[in-house]
Design brief:
Chains A, B: InterPro entries: NUDIX_hydrolase-like_dom_sf (IPR015797), NUDIX_hydrolase_dom (IPR000086), WH-like_DNA-bd_sf (IPR036388), WH_DNA-bd_sf (IPR036390), WHD_NrtR (IPR054105). The structure is a homodimer of 235-residue chains. With 235 residues, chain A is α+β, with helices and mostly antiparallel strands. The first copy, chain A, contains 6 helices and 10 strands, in the order ββββαββαβαβααββα. Chain A binds a DNA duplex (30 and 30 nucleotides) through helix 5.
Chain lengths: 235, 235
DNA sequence: CGCATTAATTGTAAAATAAACACTTAAATT
DNA sequence: AATTTAAGTGTTTATTTTACAATTAATGCG
């Protein structure tokens, strides 16, 4: 078999920035690294790409190892290729961000992989350039969420408007007028109001909504402006 | 030195989708591949990442080889990692798109590298998955240009409003009302009207403008809406 | 030299969208 | 029954976007 024999070959890794939302707080899934180098330090979930799998397959495999979940919302973000980003051996990392419903497996996670949900506001020091990856991921979901309805991926199938607003406010680090917010969100036609309420958050209770999946998939690429002033994305 | 000894290593390539605009037509810079496999077939400009350079450095090096230019607008786009995208040996390609002022070196290009400017509407069959890269690049610049003033990178330092409008219309494959277009563009405050005219395109001549570089760099991240209906980005 | 041609330039009114703003209501608790 | 707490809801104003066509500058031709 013909080969490009003179060329250097590189280690390829995939790193996943996994976001979750518990109805109150935006969180990242981090692990205590189980092997050297940087054993026991906080890290994103990552792993080496195998010879037989594509990048997307690698990302999905790694995410499944971490969370047990398949079919998670996963999007390639950026490839990090500074020559000395891994002190042991040069490794190029293809980063992905994932948005998952935190409730779907709050438990199995930490048991199997020493993983933990950490509030985005209190991310510890991370290994290598993972800090930089997290920063870019925050920026990326803000950017994308300003234009597309991706944040629903973070919510359970039934959710309330106050929860949704809370999520948007967390992602954009802004407070939004609730009258205008509900107008905008409902105007998308993406939400179906259910007849029962979530009584957990208040005495009165808040009506549950669910996504109109038809419209959700149809309009996913469309621009949907939920955020008042997109200039908040500037950073 | 410690190594991740058990892991597979991969060839890493960089491929550049280079856009140019001659005042009339949007074009891509393509080359006739000089080596096997697929010798003499049309291809994007690419090359293998070297052991001592970062991904960005590789992209800049390759772009310089092709165009002789440095300091070109270059942005990492996406990493392609299907296992058999290169039939010879598995290669992961990190793609970049570049926006250049076509006039800066219309000539030296084709001489040195068998490169040619090809109208975007008439791209020939390309090797490997380069077709897919081009499609993604078209989509990416459309997306980005709808929100940020990147298209100025395609224009010479002095340009006219009709040229600029033509560029936007080419990128978005749409026609825009010229009164509304000039209002929007001028409202950004990014343009400085010069006192002389370009007499090439019409009898009356069109005034030259240049970028206010201060504002350009300051507002680059800001959202600038020049495109009437961003839903045209849906595809 | 005036006339015809061609593309550049410019403004306004109507419609749509976004922003600002506060009271009422449902349900649980005391 | 009264109190507490958060959910739910509408209107007015301001801003932005859209639709739409006549005038002007310069050239070349008769």
């Amino acid at each position: 078999m013909l080969k490009y024999s003179k060329q250097t070959r590189f280690l390829l890794a995939v790193d996943c920035i996994v976001f979750g939302f518990d109805g109150e707080t935006l969180k990242l899934l981090l692990i205590k690294r189980a092997f050297n180098p940087e054993k026991d330090k906080w890290s994103l979930m990552g792993g080496f790409v195998q010879a037989t799998e594509s990048l997307d397959q690698a990302a999905n495999r790694i995410l499944k190892q971490l969370t047990g979940l398949e079919g998670v919302y996963l999007e390639q973000m950026y490839s990090f290729g500074e020559t000395s980003r891994d002190p042991i051996e040069r490794t190029v990392s293809v980063s992905y961000f994932a948005l998952i419903d935190i409730h779907k497996y709050e438990k199995q996670i930490s048991a199997d992989f020493h993983a933990e949900w950490v509030p985005l506001k209190r991310i510890p020091k991370l290994i290598f350039d993972h800090q930089e990856m997290v920063e870019l991921a925050k920026k990326s979901i803000r950017y994308k969420a300003a234009l597309h309805p991706i944040l629903f991926e973070l919510l359970p199938s039934r959710f309330t408007l106050p929860q949704l607003q809370n999520l948007y406010e967390s992602v954009f680090n802004a407070s939004i007028d609730k009258r205008n917010f509900s107008k905008r969100v409902l105007a998308t036609g993406l939400l179906i109001k259910l007849t029962d309420k979530d009584k957990a958050g208040s005495k009165r209770g808040a009506f549950y909504y669910q996504l109109n999946m038809q419209k959700y998939y149809a309009n996913f690429q469309a621009f949907i402006n939920i955020i008042p002033n997109p200039d908040s994305l500037q950073n």
